[in-house]
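can u pls check wat happens w/ D-xylitol-5-phosphate
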Amino acid sequence: MVNPVLIAPSILSADFARLGEEARAMTEAGADWLHLDIMDGHFVPNITFGPTVVKALRPWSTLPFDTHLMIGPADPYIPAFAEAGADRISFHPEAGPHPHRTVQLIRSLGKAPGVVLSPGTPIAMVEELLGDVDLVLVMTVNPGFGGQSFIESQLDKIARLRALIDKSGRDVRLEIDGGVTSETAPRVIAAGADTLVAGTAAFRGGPGAYAGNIAAIRGKR
Ligand code: DX5
Ligand code: ZN
């Protein structure tokens, strides 16, 4: 059973000089979650922002904060993100050293844990965690930057993960991140995705365009 599709705009593509207003505009435009990309310049070759900015953003949106940690190690910073207002916290298992401990830590803080698979990371990295996480995030670009092209080979991975999640019988969301557009969205949904991150496609055209952008990604034009 595939859940209703949720759209999670990534504020990586927002105007960083006006992040609060951008978060509010995207909330009013009908987004389901706000996706926050946290990069450390070490695990990925780019730097974004940390818990201070997450905390500053919190009053600007009522939506769940879908926090994507591209930092290594992640564990020492997870309590600060939880405290700042993150609702869902996802991490890359390669950030190490003990992915299951990271899941336990996120759960102990009352937050929803997710595991992220980069394009070159096999499904095996999440199999032993599937009974404990609330979300699996499949990256359809390599982590680090918005505006990259969708990597086709991940469609098969999405389909295989959908089958594994269905077999588990657990309520685990299958989220896709990278190169999601109104053209690629129907294809990842057909493969079994139920939650779509969109940076460039969600924020293009400025606040007046956000509702239309979200509708186009949902497939309602
Ligand atoms: C990339 C980030 C993505 C990024 C997606 O490392 O995890 O969330 O914002 O951007 P688009 O939708 O432009 O590919
Ligand atoms: Zn992301």
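The first strand starts at residue 6 and ends at 9.
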